[in-house]
Amino acid sequence: MSKVRIALIGAGDRGKDRYGEFAIQYPENIEFVAVAEPNEIKRKEFAQKHNIALEHQFESWEPLLEKTKFCDGVIIATQDDMHYEPTKLAIEKGYHVLLEKPMSNDLKECIELGKLASKSDKAFMICHVLRYTPFYSAIKKAIDEKMIGEVKSIQHNENIAYYHFAHSFVRGNWRNSDESSPLILAKSCHDMDILLWLAGKRCVKISSFGDLSFFKADKAFENAGERCVECDAERECPYSAKKIYYKSIGQWPTTVISEIQTKEAVEKAVKEGPYGRCVFKCDNNVVDHQVTIIEFEDGVNATFNLSAFTNKQHRTLKIMGTEGEIRGDDNRNEIEIQRFGSNERIIINPEVTTGGHGGGDHGIMEDFISLIKNNSGKALTSADISVESHVMSFAAEESRVNNRTIEIKEFYKKFD
After folding, report:
1. Rounded-to-integer distance, Cα 149 and Cα 367, Å
2. Distances from the Cα of 60 to the Cα of 38, 91, 96, angstroms
3. Which residues contact 53 (CB under 8 A, 6 or more apart)?
4. pTM higher than 0.85 for the full model?
5. C-alpha distances in Å from residue 278, one per residue of 26, 175, 181, 310, 381
6. SS3 for 114-130, per residue?
7. For residues 358 and 371, is the Cβ–Cβ distance under 8 A?
8. How far apart are the C-alpha atoms of 211 and 285, rounded to whole Å?
9. What CA–CA distance (Å, rounded) separates 163 from 127?
10. Helix (H, G, I), strand (E, B), or coil: what is residue 18?
11. CA angle at residue 284 from 282 to 289, to 5 degrees?
């Protein structure tokens, strides 16, 4: 097989601009032959860029998957609550599947998809792309080689960054858990997955605390308007849509707010669309900070902090073992290993690779293509593996909402 043939369901930021661009860079490995996308501008843009025949351009996933199987695999990059049905049908029709995270915003559906993955002889992967980054791969290698002995504790922080949080989780698609998913699932199932992978143990218990404390009406500037273009406080507000979007035309996050990337179109989107609203006057309800405490098997424990209130968008962590410790900052691309009883510090700067998420987007695409070509092997992020990190995310939210510690086995039984 010289190249794999793929259908894309959902031509938004992830589907069109991440996985689609991979195909442009590596046309010898992958070819998109179909697209399903309700937004006509996005659908036509993607179809034109990838030379997709008109009969394989669809407004929704249903007619695409009604057809007899006509390509090797399907990438599903729709909104969280639109994952289950097309994924289930694609698997049943014999497609290899790459599914955006989270698997679903319904835990029963996540568990069912995991069971389907365990029975399928096709690749069925979840886009937990951090496992494919050189940064986290190097940390995992150091742990597996016992450079710090046995892991006992992990501290992990997801610094979402004030502008990213305002864009995605106050104004954007993941602002309201009633419409999408709670923050720890929508954003941080990545982090639950990484903690599970690095710990190398099953999760036993989980507790979580956090709330929406800042992005709400009673925190608004006294003279704040409903929209940034009509606000007397806009100049002093770091969350101003004008400040966030006007300076990045043609780049994320501005590419999300308008299909047309001109100054006029972006200004119109800020003036009229959801991304121009005052961050204190939106219909958001997801938490803006949260801490989660996790107990794994064999007494390994972890703490995870997510926060909107950081300047940079990055992840930092510290892993403590019986013979040393590891510190890491993915923004600096630096891993520091300190062994006990030695003044020597080992500094690792992993290979810098192309692609979003520190090279993880390209890494997962390369693995997906390889598994399809070989029609064998187990993905790092196979859906039957990814179920556990989703259970952790749902359990953390259950703990936060009901103020109690969750026993994972008992929690899982309620949904299985």
Report:
1. 30
2. 6, 17, 19
3. 33
4. yes
5. 41, 13, 22, 19, 38
6. HHHHHHCCCCEEECCHH
7. no
8. 9
9. 23
10. helix
11. 125
